[in-house]
Amino acid sequence: MKDSMTWEDTIKKIRKEDAFKELVEKAYFDEDLELNVNRFGNSEEFKETLKIIRSSAPKASSILDIGCGNGISSVNFALQKYHVTAVEPDPSFTIGAGAIKKLKTFYALDNLDVYEAYAEDINFKNNSFDIVYVRQAMHHANNLEKFLKECVRVLKPNGLLLTIRDHVIYNETDKEWFLKAHPLHKFYGGENAFTAQEYKDAITNAGAEILNELRYYDSIINYFPSTNNEVNSLKETNKLNQKKRLVKKIGKIGNSWFVWNLYCFLSKYEPLNEAFIPGRMYSYIAIKK
Ligand SMILES: C[S@@+](CC[C@H](N)C(=O)[O-])C[C@H]1O[C@@H](n2cnc3c(N)ncnc32)[C@H](O)[C@@H]1O
Fold first, then answer.
1. What is the rounded CA–CA span in Å between residue 139 and residue 143?
2. Tens of pLDDT along 137-183?
3. CA nearest to 77, candidates 55, 49, 97
4. Does one domain contain both 174 and 66?
5. pLDDT tens digits, residue range 238-257?
6. Residue 67 Cα to ligand 1 middle (Å)
7. Domain co-membership, 247 together with 212
8. Which of 144, 214, 256, 284 is the most exposed place for a label (fewest CB within 10 A)?
9. Ligand 1: lining residues by beta carbon, under 6 Å
10. Can you give the residue range of the structural domain that contains 47?
């Protein structure tokens, strides 16, 4: 089965199966393209992204959206009045550049241009865009260094680079675990991930300065559709369970504020442990130097 289907075949297949209903909704893969656009536009992830853009690049007017799939982000940025250039290598009318062209017509967007290309091969002029935004596409790079060099080359000086929700692995064993756990990899075989260091090196080698590394639990941008409340309640439950284990081990003194905090400090205890999430996603905020 592995590698026998294209990405488009995979999405068309899962749309028909009840077992993938939630994934189709959460990953914005619905056949109804406007529904995906509306869902993404109203998501906490997109709202948080807009906050970052508005505070880090308040005067920005142009956005290059690379590897933009079925256009959920490109169209929403265009609806927010940015001038958007959407770049997507897959021509598909349901999951790729063709879908974005349909949406451009549907929303009558004259501030959205669509191109079919890989990031490594874009041929825009140097210093063209205020913002380069890449959502869940950097980890698919054929050549990570070249991918980032092109992103930064076309950014204006001091322009903002946002790489959003890319899978991070710690080592090859962790990568195998992630690929096995990925619900769609077995169909189309196209998943991938890099280490955080590889992403950071590629971004800095391309000439951008990383302002913020958002690790998995640092931002709702990464963990959405989980909510902040869900993440906070997971944190409290984990703490409670860990405290119970401590009390079992050392007795009631483990309940004391001082002993508990000393234990957390000495053992570097983190109630939210991203290591339990296969291919946990990170985002990077960087500027072109
Ligand atoms: C997981 S999808 C994300 C799509 C979209 N950005 C989103 O968030 O819904 C990954 C996308 O990256 C595109 N892609 C794969 N390799 C790429 C590359 N080298 N350069 C640019 N885009 C690429 C794929 O065609 C696919 O549409």
1. 10
2. 999 999 999 999 999 999 999 999 999 999 999 999 999 999 999 99
3. 49
4. yes
5. 999 999 999 999 999 999 99
6. 4
7. no
8. 256
9. 28, 66-69, 72-73, 88-90, 118-120, 135-137, 140-142, 147
10. 7-224+278-288
